[in-house]
Amino acid sequence: MSEKPILIKEIEIGGRCLKLETGRVAGQAGGAVLVRYGDTVVLVTATMSKTVREGIDFFPLTVDYEERLYAVGKIPGGFIKREGRPSEKAILSGRLIDRPIRPLFPKGCRNEVQVVATILSVDQDNAPEIAAMIGASAALHISEIPFQGPIGGVIVGLVDGEYVINPTLAQAEKSLMHLVVAGTRDAVMMVEAGAKEVPEDQILGGITFGHEKVKEIVEFIENFREEALALGLAKEKITPVLAQVDPQVEEAVSGPAAEELTAAVRQCIERRLDKQAREAFLDEVKAKLVESFRETFPEQEQSILAVIEAVEKKIVRRFILEEGVRIDGRALDEIRPISVEAGILPRTHGSGLFTRGQTQVLSVVTLGAISDEQILDDLGIEEAKRFMHHYNFPPYSTGETRPMRSPGRREIGHGALAERALEPVIPGEDTFPYTIRLVSEVLSSNGSTSMGSVCGSCVALMDAGIPIKAPVAGVAMGLVKEEDRVAILTDIQGIEDHLGDMDFKVAGTARGITALQMDIKIPGISADILEKALAQAREGRLYILNKILEVIPAPRPELSPYAPRIIHTVIDPDKIREVIGPGGKVIKKIIDETGVEIDIEDDGRVYIAAVDPAAAKRALEIIENITKDVVVGEIYTGKVTRVTDFGAFVEVVPGVFGMPGKEGLVHISHLAHHRVNRVEDVVKEGDTIVVKAIGFDNQGRLKLSRKEALPPEPREAAPHHRRPKGRQGRH
């Protein structure tokens, strides 16, 4: 038996070598590719079930992004010491791969497809999610799976005014944006970005720049498949069994359905029905249509309904393209009525209620100490983060019932998008030393709750008195495209998202974009369409920003009375152990006595958090006393602790919790400007006196002077003595 060949091909991306390998590992998967980019290594497999999954009306694609902490030389935290549920980063990376490949499978495919990316080694200069995306494309392409790719993907940075492909860690720290671009040779399929108020034209330039490199990657993967086929390492594509409607049902139902639904949709437009009223009205029309064909096509109710819904989609799209009007009667660039309320919750640290049409989001901000930051246990270099945004989507927001479970991929993805949009305007730890948690509760949903979360959260941040750099708003854009006819929609609602060809979310300030996410349901869109969508999104964003600023034009000047007050100081790192004390005894006593929270960083930064400012001030005084050094030449107020024949010992820095303070000796000659015969004539034990530090003796003991801390004594009139005259001569 001859040895199986191994295929390895290389391409340069961002000045570094990317290798694709197949034939060595995971031979039973439909397609398996080992990707190496620098020292980042990812195994990606793609496998399809042999049979159709019955009883579903969607394509069952799953993308699993499996982080292994050995990839960065870590042992998992916690008691069990093995990887558990995916981290947020893993979930977001899986979504990043899913979104550009999902539209490239045949419509009606019901075979389960699973893509698994296992992260084996991570070099922080080479993003594993990009290696995984390219690997997923290659694994699908060499498999028998009917994938209409391949795709490529890159990260585009903006460093010193220049675009950079897949920036290194050092470049990423200086970059003004993190822009992920994925697509086919012909068009962009997915864009996701976080940016620091970058103008639209630079974002568009970055997308175009990234797509040029994507084209090279696509060609590279196509050549990889051709060579793999020649070596017997790739498979011929299969023709799947696609879910289709019976042609007789389609022919019989389409005409009557079009007539009934055109009239029904026109009524919705003219009456400007809201979501519930529209759905109830259209459901009634559809039910009558299904009933009218039930006898003709028994046991084909699902097929009848599928035809009706396909007709409804065409009609709604036709009204948009031909008449420039949407199902709720709005113009293409019209935003639904907006309501903004700030500070509606009395005891929270900040709150904002944002309503746009029937989409309503309540955002609440909580301020905490630095120790409240989120600890990260993933493959990245960051160990914690102090700004968090969490998104909740309860079933009542759509008028439905379902079990309330932990956040799913959708909730995590929407929460991360809003967090990315707001992060560039959050003040730094040096000026605002708080951990900030935002929670957005979707109270009502009819389109773009993620952008509603951005707007509500901006209001909550300002209501909390957090000095954000600029207000942020977001808007969701849609697209209807048929051949050369294109309509771009501002502020899409749920039905337009469902029936349209694009979901394009843009958030930012008046200066520029802070976050962007685009998903395409058709095989890509052109740069011209992107440019128009960005320009129209900017107009919508500025309109919404003005609505927010009418209600709360700037962050409140004071924090909520229920928010902790954090004061900070810097101590000598060598004195940290004195503040903590043996076994943490000292810091525990400070906390018990004052009721504050204390965080001490390794570099000597100390943060004290307390709702009561007086308690924070008291804790600060204690810490300052513990760490205070006596400076020669400074004046101190101290307490006399002992009196001896030769002087008085004075404590200039008091001790705490039984620990000795700092004391020195005032020699009898330094007690006063005049001669002192007995120390007790000037001071007694327990007296509080003013002294000056004048130095240290050869044994390091502190020397103090009361005399030098006092103003000169007034010169007293000395007794008048007649000078004796010189000896007189004899008489």
UniProtKB/TrEMBL annotation:
Basic residues composition-biased segments: 720-731
Pfam families documented for this protein: KH_1, PNPase, RNase_PH, RNase_PH_C, S1
The EC number(s) this enzyme carries: 2.7.7.8
Ligand binding (Mg(2+)): D497, D503
InterPro entries: ExoRNase_PH_dom1, ExoRNase_PH_dom2, ExoRNase_PH_dom2_sf, KH_dom, KH_dom_type_1, KH_dom_type_1_sf, NA-bd_OB-fold, PNPase
Keywords recorded for this protein, A-Z: Cytoplasm, Magnesium, Metal-binding, Nucleotidyltransferase, RNA-binding, Transferase
Catalytic activity reported: RNA(n+1) + phosphate = RNA(n) + a ribonucleoside 5'-diphosphate
One example of a Gene Ontology biological process annotation: RNA processing
Biased composition regions of type Basic and acidic residues, renumbered to the chain: 705-719
Requisite cofactors: Mg(2+)
Principal cellular location given in the protein's record: cytoplasm
Gene Ontology, cellular component aspect: cytosol
Span list, region Disordered: 704-731
Localization, UniProt: Cytoplasm
SUPFAM superfamilies the UniProt entry points to: Eukaryotic type KH-domain (KH-domain type I) (SSF54791), Nucleic acid-binding proteins (SSF50249), Polynucleotide phosphorylase/guanosine pentaphosphate synthase (PNPase/GPSI), domain 3 (SSF46915), Ribonuclease PH domain 2-like (SSF55666), Ribosomal protein S5 domain 2-like (SSF54211)
Keyword Nuclease: no
Alphabetical list of PANTHER family matching this protein: POLYRIBONUCLEOTIDE NUCLEOTIDYLTRANSFERASE, POLYRIBONUCLEOTIDE NUCLEOTIDYLTRANSFERASE 1, MITOCHONDRIAL
Protein's job: Involved in mRNA degradation. Catalyzes the phosphorolysis of single-stranded polyribonucleotides processively in the 3'- to 5'-direction.
Name by which UniProt lists this protein: Polyribonucleotide nucleotidyltransferase
